[in-house]
TrEMBL record:
Record lineage: Eukaryota, Viridiplantae, Streptophyta, Embryophyta, Tracheophyta
GO molecular function, one term: enzyme inhibitor activity
Signal peptide: 1-27
Protein name stated in the entry: Pectinesterase inhibitor domain-containing protein
Entry keywords, A to Z: Signal
Gene3D superfamilies linked to this entry: Invertase/pectin methylesterase inhibitor family protein (1.20.140.40)
Domain Pectinesterase inhibitor, residue spans: 27-173
NCBIfam families found in the cross-reference section: PME_inhib (TIGR01614)
Record-linked SMART domains: PMEI (SM00856)
Superkingdom of origin: Eukaryota
One Pfam family in the UniProt entry: PMEI
Length: 179
């Protein structure tokens, strides 16, 4: 076989494998689009799931865990921003309220491993209920501020909104896979 023929054969093989890989990606993009279309924020959901682990393993559990990872990362940012804001404020009422919020955020974050275990066991109904509890716990920060008649700092408020949306996306995805 000539060198030119060998190159053509290698190119054909490469194209075949590349085309097959693209077919898998398109199928997974379709699955992601289908799952995310039923969520509170389809674009955020799609962006999150596309950033997750390989599409080849896109089982229901993997999709849910990837969405939980995005929500958990947002929780980490919320905790960091709240901690930083608390350290830079001098008002005792706002400082104490932020400290109480940090306690709630830390407690909510501690529940994520349990939720992940429940998801791995495919008890999506229980996982949904636990996720709603996390959302309530994160939202309790806003209620603390309201009860004291003070405004939630903008950065904290924005992060709470993001975390809440991300956990509602997890809840919506869980509901996609419930019987």
């Amino acid at each position: 076989m000539s060198a030119k023929s060998l190159i053509v054969v290698h190119f054909a093989i490469l194209c075949t494998f590349s085309f097959q890989a693209l077919m898998f990606i398109k199928a997974d993009d379709g699955q992601i689009a289908q799952v995310c279309s039923k969520t509170i924020d389809p674009k955020a959901c799609t962006d999150c799931l596309r950033s997750g682990s390989s599409s080849e393993n896109a089982t229901d559990v993997v999709l849910i865990e990837n969405s939980m990872l995005c929500a958990t990362n947002a929780m980490d940012l919320l905790f960091h921003d709240t901690f930083r804001y608390q350290g830079n404020t001098s008002g005792s009422t706002i400082k104490q309220t932020l400290n109480d919020c940090l306690d709630q955020f830390e407690d909510a974050k501690g529940k994520v491993n349990h939720i992940s275990d429940v998801v791995k066991g495919k008890d999506f109904s229980l996982a949904r209920n636990l996720c709603n509890g996390v959302v309530d716990q994160i939202g309790s920060c806003t209620k603390l501020f309201q009860s004291k008649g003070i405004s939630v700092p903008v950065i904290v408020s924005n992060d709470i909104r993001t975390v809440t949306t991300d956990w509602f996306i997890v809840v919506d995805i869980l509901e996609n896979f419930m019987p």
